Records
---
Amino acid sequence: MPIDPYILALLGTVALAALLPASGTAADVAGGATTGAVALLFFLYGARLSTREALDGLKSWRLHLTVLACTFLVFPLLGLAARGLVPFALTPELYSGLLFLCLVPSTIQSSIAFTSMARGNVPAAICAGSFSSIAGIVVTPLLAALLLGGGANGFSADSLLRIVAQLLLPFVAGQLLRRWVGGFLTRHRTLLGRVDRGSILLVVYTAFSQGMVAGVWNQVTPGRLGALFAVEVVLLAAMLTISWYGARRLGFDRADRVAIQFAGSKKSLAAGLPMASVLFGAQASLAVLPLMLFHMLQLVVCAMIAKRRSRDPLPEPSLDEPAAVRTRAVAGQG
């Protein structure tokens, strides 16, 4: 399968931070730029989200609740279960990063792309990913404070205030100003997409530079990285299985199950990296390592699943089904 150029850019950024880490004045400048970039990211998230579309999406509330339960309930429970792997397979720092990964909201873009490829319910995937991202701005820091607080990470009221200042307030500002800036964002979607990705690369560079300067990478061995990868393979396989068969037990049709599987089993690098930089400080490099590894893994595995599901025969809708259901099935066949 072709390699995502953005994955290569992420790996290149990590290599640059390892060879030329920012320190001293350069670190202060990079830290200030990262703070501004994170605020800009969440302002753009807020300005792009159509409130009207979000409200319309509430009609599929059972599906959205299922995705939220996978993202913020089942994932954290599996993360807590992995605590038994410390210190035999994972170091405490890598485990903290793994648990933080389990608290991050679902991704939007790739969930939509894979749902479309697999001929699933694309509108539901759009809304589910959007709702997860909105909820994650509040739920992820609260869960992090609850499950990771009191330890080496130093979560406190100050951490939550930083989240509000750098993430929540810019998001709300984007929503309030959408009326005036929404058209501009739509016309310059490609350019702003590059701004998004560039901002995330800056966050990665700053986080890994701090890790290099602080010497945290001396704590990671190839054996530990291999164990982390194996744990994440099991975690992804468990969530793909739970989301697919759990949705079937709940009575969802195939199109909805596809959307639930892809939105409920994936984690957002774009949302998780800025949050980690705010919450973990100098330890952010180890905190984001599990998330970056999981991001690459989920892209490869879900692409293969979506390609396979695209060849599934679709059920023929009966004449007594609602028109919307028949229309969706016909569109999926096309």
Note: The two ends are 25 Å apart (CA to CA).
---
Amino acid sequence: MSNHLNSALSEPSMANPLAPDLPLPHRKIIRSWLIPMAQGETAKAIALLVMDAVLWLGCIAGTIFIESVLIKIVLGLVAGFVTGRIFILGHDACHQSYTPHRELNKVLGRIAFLPSLTPYSLWDVGHNVVHHGQTNLKGFDFVWAPLSKAEFDALPAWRKALERLYRSGWGPVFYYLIEIWWRREYFPNAKNKPGDRPIFLKDNLLVTGFAIIWIACLIAGALATGQSVWLGLITGFAVPFLFWNGMIGFVVYVHHTHTSVSWYDKKSEWLRAQPFVSTTVHLTFNWIWGSLMHHIMEHTAHHVDMSVPLYRLKEAQNTLETILPERIFVQKFSWAWYFETARKCKLYDFENKAWLDFDGNKTADSVRVVLSPAPAGQNG
């Protein structure tokens, strides 16, 4: 690459956007644009966690002490949504971006993961190491990784039916509950456990202890108020937990599944395709849903630099979209778009970079990223 082009790639700024036909700069250069936003604030971080924790506890208490079944259900659903909000705080803590203090982040992260019953250390490995380290690389990143036609055809009938459910548009709750939480996080077996570190067991025991206390409080509350124990457990535990699983399953699906987003099965090709930019989607909303979800939908900025805290992601995302026009996938959310995506994105043709239906028919061509030359000696 010429010195002139190297110079051009280092110069883009908010006032001088990069032309869409030029290669993307190195990740270090792109991350340098976000350095001013990568500063955690301890007081703000703790305040956010306290606020959401109080809101969650209030909703759970409401499912105990309010007698109206309808209000109990509504509060259970709200508690599930707040579980997602609290989890996002823990997500930042696990990335060490929530506060400037490493050990404090570990404590706050474990606290924030309690309502979702997420074992901190196991999620850390699966998310930070695997997902962020190998985003949309088949065989490494397992979250919503699409099957090829040959892989799908080789499945037994029951597993094909499960895959159809997962990718029906109605399946995120089942996908996350079964494939992520149950198989890979909550006391995973040897096949799905990333090693045998003692902290994995400790974190599973921590969330189990929390679940026992949570359930015990619901039972005690129902008995003390003369209400149905089963109704209390359903509205105060099952509804929030299932809503949370559906919420996180949906969020991770729309972050990396889009007709324009490519998946890769060759690491050399994946590396040259700038995967930290080209494999993520910024989903926008008409109302304030993005803010209510602590800006987790400003997802490109998060993948470019995980040290940017959630309360600065909006500014970081705007910076990227201004400097890199036409490079970042920005999608306005609608349920019509979501179910159309679910209809088209069933299987994936890794060789031709195309989405397929379950019969193998092409439904969409994903965007082929202009690849820079592979480093010498690198192969697939």
Note: The chain has one domain: 36-365.
